[in-house]
């Protein structure tokens, strides 16, 4: 009978040790899961920030493209005016040269 009690006590001790070890493992897994969830939350926040920055940069790029288009159009118009003025001056010079030679 004493051997059976000792055997049962060892079995109970083994079961208790196994339960405590499993409990520690589960707590460790829970802590790791919590860290992973926090990291996922942080990454989602960073992704949101990046997405917002991307949209802002796209709007800025669109604005710069429009400014470039407007500047190019204005430069083209100015070039046309200058060419007209140059043609007028050249014609007047030709007329003056013709008058001098006569």
The helix/strand class is mainly alpha
**Average pLDDT metric:** 95
- What is the CA–CA distance across the termini? 148 Å
Written as H for each helix and E for each strand, in order along the chain, the element string is H
> How much strand?
under 5%
Radius of gyration: 43 Å
Low-confidence stretches: none
Looking at the structure, what is the overall shape?
Answer: rod-shaped
Helix % is over 70%
The count of helical stretches stands at: 1
Give the biggest beta sheet. none
Number of strands: 0
Provide the descriptors you would attach to this structure in a database record.
single chain, about 100 residues, mainly alpha, 1 helix
Give a written overview of the molecule:
There is one protein chain. The protein has 102 residues and is mainly alpha-helical. Helices cover 98% and strands 0% of the residues. The protein starts with a helix and ends with a helix. The longest helix is centred in the middle third of the chain and has 100 residues, at 2-101. It is rod-shaped and about 150 Å long. The protein contains one helix and no strands. The mean pLDDT is 95.
Question: Could you give the topology of this structure?
Answer:
Elements: H1 2-101
Structure summary:
The protein has 102 residues and is mainly alpha-helical.
């Amino acid at each position: 009978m004493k051997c059976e009690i000792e055997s049962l006590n060892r079995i109970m001790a083994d079961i208790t040790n196994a339960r405590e070890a499993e409990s520690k493992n589960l707590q460790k897994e829970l802590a790791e899961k919590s860290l992973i969830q926090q990291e996922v939350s942080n990454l989602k926040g960073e992704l949101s920030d990046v997405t917002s920055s991307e949209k802002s940069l796209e709007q800025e790029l669109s604005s710069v493209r429009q400014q470039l288009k407007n500047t190019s159009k204005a430069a083209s118009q100015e070039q046309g005016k200058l060419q007209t003025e140059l043609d007028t001056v050249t014609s007047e010079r030709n007329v003056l040269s013709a008058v001098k030679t006569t």
